[in-house]
Specification:
The structure is a homodimer of 461-residue chains. Chain A is mostly helical. Chain A is built from 22 helices and seven strands. At the A-B interface, strand 1, helix 1, helix 12, helix 13 and strand 5 of A face strand 1, helix 1, helix 12, helix 13 and strand 5 of B.
């Protein structure tokens, strides 16, 4: 009996110890001990350990000692790079057995990693209807409801009894994991209602499913975006979501465990794009791949900062008469950038969570301008007064305060409008927005400060 | 019969129309029509609409026409600000009825919003054991397993039959929502196993729960952090997670719907902290609250940028002889900041998802330094060569390229070490890390560029 208490923080250390032990056993060829050590672990732990093993042949050895009923699950849980490496070393027959044991969504994900000819050979040996279903699933884009769904679900016709529904669940649960609901459909497979397993257990004998089912069914079509799918699960507290064709006929369902991964993925994606990483970067990615991913955004940033720097070039005369200006202009630019990224963060999350759309543009713009004004007056005064006492130059102090205020307003404007515009053009509002926003605030910050200063110098200098 | 197909994008527009309609009906006092319009909606939609209504008295009116069996659910689904406003206008008796209808975790969250005396009056009218359970839940910090759990769960003693387990589920499901599992315990309430409802339906009559239960039980103690709880749900594909006291006795359970909210919350929190917002800011927050939240970080940024600006002050002589330097130094600082935020994003997500710990520090540092070196050589060469052709000054070009390389390495170093250090001190690695990292890259960028330049000028100038 294994009771696993994953409490207070021991988790990471324990996995570390297990990893060392498994690698030792595999490297020294003690297959029997390795097999026993692996059998004592939860499949999710085995998957995590296989991901953490560096050498491919050790990954393969650990996977090789798994019991036949556990191996498919583990293979569906490891990360795609590990999966690809393990799959390369399996025969067509082994892969076919694994595909047969998996739910159709996991089977489709697995086959997508296998080169065309081998995939055909695997599919050819499967029962016809299963093969057709898996091939259909492989055609949907990965980030849509079709790409997330599996074609196994429990459904009964309206008018069936509760006992008939229970019988269907019983038959299905022997081969399919995670049955949470029974869908009630008409003869054209259109959804009429849904029943949870708890409702099935609660129902009295002889009742029809129509009498106990929930008639408010939330569903999506195969082409719905995964971000919208995730938000529906969140809003309606769903465990599974039926997916239909464009005409409303039931094709499959998405389960909550896949959506939890989507939620993490979408959040990390917004996060990464906003800070100019493009795609999410795995933490232990190779330096070369990391460079390839980060370099384009840094290059873009080099172009935009060179543009703002060329604004400074226009005011070389001013800087030569007052070298202190070169120092203070950087404060104005940095503050604008910081305020812009704050606004941007609120906007990008709000858009991702579906809390705002283009109709809110005016209200948001007003809020952000008021916030920019408030922060600008407060910090403009502080910086201006501090500047006066440090350098005893009234003109410089006034210019610093004014330029800060202007740059906060620019930050509010561009950091609200850029994501709203991208969103209304159906582009991702997070894509490199921060690069563009800081480009604007740098440029306007330098221009406002040096511009005010040269005007001021020409009148009072 | 209401079939809701939430497919392709109509969602936001439709809610917009519904909002206008409800506000019209409420404002014109057509209570009967309002009541019918609200009754046709899903509770989650009603909650979303109440959140979107601006005027408090209209919020209250819409809530007031809800059926008594729906009102508690809606109240548990609205955002805390709406909840607080609605609760202010309800009597102690009304609140007591709502508390009785809610699961204990939602009841505790609701009572936390009620001022002390009224809360005592509500609790005094509840059955003794329920009142004690809710008060106990209110004592756990909100971001721990104790703060997330509810004290209603289905449990049977080892040795019970499957029929007895079904009977317990049936009794409980009449009053408690979301029963996903039955926990199997010994006489001291220690966990021995767990059964899903599907397993219960699959089991043969007369079998004992010991024969069918899953013996690998994942559990946490009341003090486990909510971020760790969310990661366990994600890793092990859980629907509910038992929570024990420090000695291992079962106290309650956490359900997946609460964890989905935690996942969003934690991602938004990291996101917000990283960009210097401190806490997550609701998109339609009042400008005054938004200013209060953002001002401290902008103030801190003002201090750090003033420090970097004072570095520039050290080189006033250099800038006066070569005003172009003032322009080019900003490129070096901005590039370092950008590279630092890229590294920081990877680090903060990796730490939040539990993918890295302090033991990986060396490997990460090496990776980041290699990446910094690669990007630095590539972009340092580009910038140096471009600088040479634009300005025909070999010294300036060499200094620009070198300073860029140095600043990329500084960015890699500080953006890896600051979050790792914060994490090992058990502080949140996301807190304002970007403010500190950009402070370092600004300071080092200015210093490296202007420093190299003045040394160069004194030898070759």
């Amino acid at each position: 009996m294994t009771i696993m208490n994953a409490g207070v923080d021991g988790g990471a250390d324990r996995q570390e110890n297990r990893l060392d032990r498994l690698v030792d056993l595999a490297a020294s060829g003690r297959d029997q001990d390795l097999s026993e050590a692996v059998a004592a672990l939860h499949p999710a732990d085995v998957a995590e350990l296989i991901d953490a093993i560096e050498r491919v042949e050790i990954k393969g050895k650990v996977f090789g000692v798994l019991a036949p009923d556990v191996a498919p699950t583990v293979l569906s849980l490891v990360t795609p790079p590990s999966r690809e490496r393990i799959v390369q070393h399996l025969s067509v027959d082994q892969l076919r057995q694994i595909v047969l044991a998996l739910d159709s969504d996991d089977a489709a994900d697995l086959l997508a990693l296998v080169p065309g000819e081998r995939a055909q050979a695997i599919l050819a040996g499967l029962p016809g209807p299963l093969s057709a279903r898996i091939q259909q699933l492989m055609r949907y884009p990965a980030d849509t409801a079709g790409g997330l769904m599996q074609s196994e679900y429990a459904a009964v016709l309206a008018g069936a009894t509760v006992e008939e529904a229970v019988e269907i669940v019983r038959t299905l649960a022997e081969t399919v994991s995670d049955i949470h609901n029974v869908f009630v459909v008409d003869h054209r497979f259109h959804l009429l209602g849904v029943l949870s397993l708890a409702q099935l257990i609660l129902a009295r004998a002889g009742q029809t499913v129509d009498a106990v089912m929930d008639r408010q069914v939330i569903s999506v079509t195969v082409s719905t975006d995964q971000e919208e799918v995730a938000q529906l699960f969140r809003k309606y507290d769903l465990l599974s979501l039926p997916v239909t064709d464009p005409r409303g006929a039931l094709l499959g369902r998405i389960t909550i465990d896949d959506v939890v991964d989507v939620l993490e993925e979408e959040a990390s994606e917004d996060f990464s794009k906003l800070s100019g990483l493009g795609q999410e970067e795995p933490i232990f990615d190779s330096p070369l791949r990391a460079i390839r991913r980060r370099l384009p955004w840094l290059g873009l940033n080099l172009v935009t900062t060179s543009l703002s720097a060329s604004v400074i070039g226009l005011f070389q005369g001013t800087i030569q008469t007052m070298a202190l200006a070169a120092a203070l202009m950087t404060i104005v630019a940095a503050q604008g950038g910081n305020a812009g990224v704050q606004t941007l963060t609120v906007m990008v999350r709000g858009l991702a969570l579906g809390q705002i759309t283009a109709v809110h543009a005016r209200a948001i713009l007003i809020k952000e301008l008021v916030v920019g004004c408030g922060n600008g007056i407060a910090l403009g005064l502080v910086a201006g007064i501090a500047g006066y006492f440090l350098h005893r130059q009234a003109l410089l102090a006034v210019v610093l305060g004014l330029a800060l205020l202007v740059n906060y307003l620019v930050a509010a404007l561009v950091a609200s409008l850029i994501p709203l515009t991208l969103h209304s053009l159906r582009a991702d509002p997070a894509v490199a927005s921060s690069v563009f926003v800081t480009a604007c605030t740098d440029l306007c910050g330098f221009f406002a400060f040096l511009g005010f200063l040269s005007v001021g110098l020409s009148y009072f200098g």
